UniProtKB/TrEMBL annotation:
GO terms for biological process: proteolysis. SUPFAM superfamilies: Cysteine proteinases (SSF54001). Belongs to the peptidase C1 family. This is Cathepsin B, cysteine protease family C01A. It comes from the Eukaryota. Residues 61-310 form the Peptidase C1A papain C-terminal domain. Residues 1-19 form the signal peptide. It comes from Achlya hypogyna (Oomycete).
Length: 410
């Protein structure tokens, strides 16, 4: 009888244990950062009410505005495949950047394929420069600072595999090799017998001309007119486990920001104002990967910590012009119109991003020799190849002796 009673009591506890476990496990889905976010403290969540001038200006804005309705949203992502990775900050930041690049290219008259920025390139290389902790969290500002300093290639350079810089800890002290930024794998004149992988060190990079943090309904709506933004959100158990569709109004008072999403617009339904946002958990979640949440009351702290960026697509002009200065190859872009390329700033390799090691230098020497053999006339090719080869060998030796200036994680 006692045993039966104990079993019955244990069975009654199972739903409670399951719910607690689900909440704890769910919290990990939204892990945003491992370090103290200096710009946030409890008072930040209590945003001041909008001023009279801000209220008046918001009244002049459209009742509904959505970049997806204008065909300016790129594809959605899933940060959690093929394995779990707490890279929501990178997905939210880059999803917004993808859409802003599309908007800018549309204004410039370019109607080509969407640009999907290299998530994996950042996760591999950003942490080695002190920007984020990779799959253990980070902030949109980490991503935009990396884009501002170094730029990011599109995702054809490296597919997303939900890993990060930690795979390089033993080899390169956490700093990525050039293959961690951009890579190609195929047969080449260097090795005609079998396909092999090699770094691509010169490619079109997309940069952040500027970026900034904003907060509050008024600032968010004004900036959304320029393009989607990225906002932190406090993922409550209700958001993680219960949301499927509709306008979310979370009543848990949960305010611990632990996730980042992209805000694409705003609207109103049955008198309820809302934000429309894109998550990074796949299109099978929510409203085809999106969700709506009440607007104007800082629900789940979604109006407390937002970022925007202004894209720089000037590298596209190198290769997309009707008479381009640069053309592409299996090794990366290289001068096509010599006189035109000579008038432009040189295209830098990835030595400022990746670990400066012999493999990259040898590859760059072979690449430059290959370019020289294509671009010069037969009568001068022998002498030029000798001079270029000698200069590159000496340059590689000098670079090898140079001290590394990379910042690595403690």
């Amino acid at each position: 009888m006692v045993a039966a009673t104990s079993l019955y009591a244990a069975m009654r506890l199972l739903p409670l244990i399951s719910a607690a476990w689900t909440a704890l496990a769910g919290a990990s889905y939204c892990h945003r950062t491992m370090r103290q976010r200096e710009h946030l403290h409890p008072s930040v969540y209590q945003l001041p009410p909008p001023s009279e001038a801000e209220v008046s200006e918001m009244a002049t804005l459209p009742a509904a505005f959505d970049w997806c309705d204008q065909g300016m949203c790129t594809s959605s992502w899933n940060q959690h495949i093929p394995t779990y990775c707490g890279s929501c900050f990178a997905h939210g930041a880059l999803s917004s950047a993808n859409d802003r690049i599309k908007i800018l290219n549309h204004k410039l008259g370019y109607r080509g394929p969407d640009v999907m920025l290299g998530r994996q390139s950042f996760l591999n290389c950003g942490p080695g420069h002190g920007l984020s902790h990779g799959c253990k969290g980070g902030e949109p500002a980490d991503v935009y600072e990396f884009m501002h300093q170094y730029g990011l290639p599109d995702e054809t350079c490296l597919h997303y595999n939900a890993t990060d810089y930690t795979k390089y800890i033993d080899l390169f002290n956490g700093t990525c090799p050039p293959e961690g930024y951009c890579i190609n794998c195929m047969k080449t004149p260097e090795n005609l017998t079998a396909p092999h992988c090699f770094p691509v060190t010169k490619m079109v990079r997309y940069r952040a001309k500027e970026y900034a943090r904003i907060a509050g309904e008024h600032a968010m709506m004004k900036e959304l007119l320029n393009g989607p933004i990225t906002c932190g959100i406090a993922c409550s158990p209700q958001f993680i486990n219960d949301y499927s569709a509709g306008v979310l109004h979370d009543t848990s008072n949960f305010t611990h920001i632990n996730h980042d999403v992209e805000i694409v617009g705003w609207g109103e339904k049955d008198g309820v104002k809302f934000w429309r946002a894109r998550n990074s958990w796949g299109t099978y979640w929510g409203e085809n990967g999106f969700f709506r949440i009440v607007r104007g009351i800082n629900n789940l702290a979604i109006e407390s910590d937002c970022h925007y960026m202004v894209p720089d697509v000037s590298d596209e002009e190198l290769v997309w012009d009707e008479s381009p200065a640069y053309g592409g190859s299996i090794y990366g872009i290289r001068p096509f119109d010599i006189s035109k390329a000579a008038k432009l700033p040189p295209v830098n390799d990835t030595s400022a991003i990746a670990w400066n090691h012999d493999k990259q230098h040898r590859h760059e020497i072979r690449l430059d020799l290959l370019n020289a053999s294509v671009l010069v006339t037969p009568s001068t090719s022998g002498l030029l190849l000798l001079l270029v080869g000698t200069a590159l060998v000496v340059g590689a030796w000098l670079r090898k002796r140079r001290r590394s200036v990379y910042r690595t994680l403690d």
